[in-house]
Amino acid sequence: MAEFTHINEEGRAKMVDVSEKIDTNREAIACGSIFMQPSTLAKIKEGKMKKGDVLSVAQVAGIMGSKKTSELIPMCHNIFITGSDIHFELKEETGEIYMEARVKSTGKTGVEMEALMAVTTAALTIYDMCKAVDKEMYIHQIYLLEKRGGKSGHYKKQK
To answer: Which residues does the UniProt record annotate as the domain Molybdopterin cofactor biosynthesis C (MoaC) (predicted)?
Structure first.
């Protein structure tokens, strides 16, 4: 079982030991979209959703999601996040809210999962706040756009 990094000698799950790794500045950017009826997006934009300011709540939820990643993904290390932010782009013609999350840390392991969790949590929050008026919403294409730092260096998704 030596070829698997998250499996111990007994064939059971383990968390990889990163204690020997050097601390480096790390950053990850993830993105995703939620699609909805244009009328739902208009209500969000105009602040007319009954549950409140959808994007403000999704912003906070996404940041909280990035901070809670290790509690939900079994093999993720609990890391010290030095920055977490989400930007929303409303595309009225397609009924899309596009999201990008940027998460930063200085440490021994990357923040890709934290950036992905931020986008996912923000999208699910938007869904939750709008589901009463739009049953057709769907979350689409959550993925890593870019990462920096660590042994593997810089990665940028090819378009």
So the answer is: 15-150
Gap between the Cα atoms of 74 and 77, Å rounded: 9
Q: What is the DSSP letter of 26?
A: E
Residue 75 marked as a ligand binder: yes
130 is in an annotated binding site: no
Alpha carbons 114 and 137: distance in angstroms, whole number: 24
Let me know: does 76 contact 69? Beta carbons within 8 Å: yes
Question: At which residue do the structure tokens 């589901």 appear?
Answer: 131
Number of neighbouring beta carbons within 10 Å of residue 14: 13
**Tokens coding 89:** 């782009």
Indicate which residue of 17, 53, 85, 128 is catalytic.
128
pTM, entire model: 0.92
Q: Thinking of the domain 24-149, which architecture would CATH place it in? A: 2-Layer Sandwich (3.30)
